[in-house]
Amino acid sequence: MAQDAGWGGGAYGGASYGGYPFGGPPGWGGWVPPPKPGVIPLAPLGLGDVLGGAFSTMGRYWKQLFGMAAALYGGATLLMAAAVAVAYSAVSDHLDRVVALDYDETASSTDVVPLVTAGIVLGLVGIVTISVVSGLMYAAVPAVLQEAVLGRPVAFAAVWRKAWSRVAPVIGALILTSLVALVPVLLVMTAFFGLIISVLAMDSGGGAAIALSLGLIGALATGPLAVWLWIKVCLAPAAVVFEGQGPVAALRRSSQLVKGDWWRIFGITLLAGLMAAVAGYIVQIPFSFLGLFPGMIGTASLDEDPSTAAVVVAMSGYLVATLLGMTVSQVISTTFPQLVTGLLYVDRRIRTENLGPVLAEAAGVPPQGFPQQGPVPPPPGGGTPQW
């Protein structure tokens, strides 16, 4: 591979002598470190460079990153709360009648149909909302990172404009990427429903047991394939924003960049996801505790037979605190892994396409410390590497 032939195995991918890449310590033998105009050195990145670059980007561009995330996820939460309020006001009478039924009574179709319809509408609104919000976030993070790598400032309005201009192809890439995991998820759901049917029917050897076995075997068989494919296409959103690729072309581009480095990208991506999940959980804990007190006070004032509206009002304090905690947690758990993925995209282009000198030129710094690699492979479509 290009990076193996030209960069070797030192600290930045070069030959190492006495612990120093490219021949010796700074100034010895003509070696100088690669430039670092922004959050990362413009050379092949190690694990510390990737994680450090992600943290540095969050520290320097926190207003743009967290402001965008808070606006999007907060707006989505308010939109869904308004949609739920509208839906409840439309079907509250039907809901109260269904809730008030005794165990031996059956709800009439005149009450069930409006409730099912409201649930479907809310589900569709939720899917559209989360798709747009996810698309904007997956476009906004690379837009910020593109300037962070070069050490240039970027305004919130500029991030918003670029994210909005690329949201449609990013959503397309995310949908295609999510389809990768569809088969294992469906098989797991088949096994789950087979188990439920088997338990309810007390069926010890019938069709439900067969469905359970087939579902589990199918999920175990297709799960590793889904993980492999997901890592292959995980750089697609970054390719959409950085290169202006369409959804299908971005998936092909991601597969090309990941080739030969699958295990490293898998490990770093998994580590970033675990770190973000732990941080999001820790952040959410104080909000859960804060919500317990108004929830306990509200439920203590309920009558013996409260209405649905009374229960919702009594639990409103807990619900608000929980939603705030989930929003803050979502902001953290979404931003950090995307920054890591974006830096892995930059790293792969530096390693395979000699993007370092191009970035140095774009940042206006001397392209020092770059070894001679010979001919640089052109990017898809020909031409020279672009940023």
Automatic annotation (TrEMBL):
Keywords, comma-separated and alphabetical: Membrane, Transmembrane, Transmembrane helix
Superkingdom: Bacteria
Keyword Membrane applies: yes
Stretches the record annotates as Disordered: 364-387
Coiled-coil ranges (or none): none
Pro residues bias (residue ranges): 374-387
Transmembrane spans: 70-92, 112-141, 170-202, 208-231, 262-287, 307-328
Annotated DUF7847 domain residues: 174-336
Entry keyword Transmembrane helix: yes
Protein name: DUF7847 domain-containing protein
Organism encoding this protein: Streptomyces glycanivorans
